[in-house]
Amino acid sequence: MSQLIVMKFGGTSMGSAERIKIAASITSEQAKKSRVAIVVSAMSKVTDLLLDTLRHAESGDKATIEKNVANLCERHKQTAADLLADPGPVQDGIDALAAEFERIAQGMLLLGDRPPRSVDEAIAIGERLTALIIAAYLAEQGTPAQAINAASVVVTDGVFGNATPIMEATRAKANSLMQPLLAQGDVPVMTGFNGATVDGKPTTLGRGGSDFSASILAAALDASELWIWTDVDGIMTADPRLVKDAKVLDEVTYAEAAELAYNGAKVLHPRTLAPLVEKKIPVWSKNSFNLAAPGTKIVPSLEEPPGARAVTSMANVALVSVEPASGAISGTRVMARAIDALDIVGAEVLTLSSSSYRQSFCFLIRKDELPVVLKSLQDAFALEIEHGYVNPFLVDENVGLLAVVGEGMRGVAGLAGRVFTAVSREGISIIAIAQGSSELTINLVVSRDGLEKAVKAIHAECQLGA
């Protein structure tokens, strides 16, 4: 059995004893055919609970710390009791991990602060708890398994909260720790979402980073395939909650999947595919709630018919406009400094559009990043705004992002016009437009109240439905 499959199970796939049983069954069945390593998320809503606890710790709310830690213990201990004939040792492990989390939270309470390094160490406890439980259940059911903290495998830079892997060092650690387990038929159960710096400081890969963890592991171990188990049937032509005739795509390319993820599709973490590109490792997006569904295969390239493949959207965004007050100010320099201000706070630019004459430009960011972005911009341009060289920044939060994606859109004359016409036919104004030189994606910013209608109109115009 030389083939290695890396499988990742998300929070809903780990959300209860019943879901963990199904994940374990999938793992055990595959372990009979090939070597298997799995990566697990925290149980659904647990990361939110941990983050909420740390916020209350910072504000001095000791009672909420105690209540939330008790809830954390109760949920995981009950899950272990529902799964295991002898839950005692695992419940002891749950107590130890909960105590570790509470120690960190109590430290924040004393400091009145949430140091990013401590936050990363604390919120990885959720994944460590699920890894402990499912590894014990697999072993009890006859599939040898071992829980592994990704901090001992995934080596990252020191950007707490949004770290980037150092692949050469990660490859060395993964092979040293996991290959012996795989060789003897064990299933390594690695925590998703977290890692550690070269000198051992705990880090995390950003919210949703368990997908990213799985692709890092797959690349480090030269896996044959990566399977990502979620609660949807695969990558779809649109959000089925908005478009009734949306269908599952059999195959998409790395580039298409990455663009869809970046622009709001929730099937994958946006950075998931980057580690896999060099080795061309295929990825399957599968539904652990519907095992009969074949899923979507993500591959390096495809022969595709002309046209779009999918449309996705994002609602919780804000459009920020920047305008020099005078032609004496270089618009290019203003843009460069604004983007640098965004980089300083780690904000992502979802789309950017500019005007050549007035040298004004606007960019779209996630709404939850708006406060830190505005502060960084105000700091960067304080003198220019004070002296009237740059106008005050304009912010529009009543907007949404649309992205039409497809490798087959390249060189197709009239496609962009059809998209714009479909939106305008619904009486929806287009606020900003952006299209990269690759012609892979057309981004539109529209009013928030017209977003859903615009998605439906484009989906119908491009004939993407079932």
Overview of this protein structure:
There is one protein chain. With 466 residues, this protein is α/β, with parallel strands linked by helices. The protein has helices at residues 17-31, 46-58, 62-83, 88-111, 116-123, 125-140, 167-183, 210-220, 254-262, 331-344, 370-380, 382-386, 415-425, 451-461; strands spanning 4-9, 35-40, 145-148, 155-156, 187-191, 194-197, 202-204, 225-230, 251-253, 283-287, 296-299, 310-314, 317-322, 351-354, 361-366, 394-396, 399-405, 430-435, 441-447. The chain has a domain at 4-231: Carbamate kinase (3-Layer(aba) Sandwich). The strands form four sheets. Strands 3-5-2-1-8-10-11-9 form an eight-stranded mixed β-sheet, sandwiched between helices. A four-stranded antiparallel β-sheet has the order 12-17-19-18, sandwiched between helices. The chain is globular, with a radius of gyration of 24 Å. It starts with a strand and ends in a 5-residue tail after the last helix. The model has no long low-confidence stretch (mean pLDDT 93).
Q: Topology, pairings included?
A:
Elements: E1 4-9, H1 17-31, E2 35-40, H2 46-58, H3 62-83, H4 88-111, H5 116-123, H6 125-140, E3 145-148, E4 155-156, H7 167-183, E5 187-191, E6 194-197, E7 202-204, H8 210-220, E8 225-230, E9 251-253, H9 254-262, E10 283-287, E11 296-299, E12 310-314, E13 317-322, H10 331-344, E14 351-354, E15 361-366, H11 370-380, H12 382-386, E16 394-396, E17 399-405, H13 415-425, E18 430-435, E19 441-447, H14 451-461
Parallel strand pairs: 1-2, 1-8, 2-5, 3-5, 4-6, 8-10, 9-11
Antiparallel strand pairs: 6-7, 10-11, 12-17, 13-15, 13-16, 14-15, 17-19, 18-19
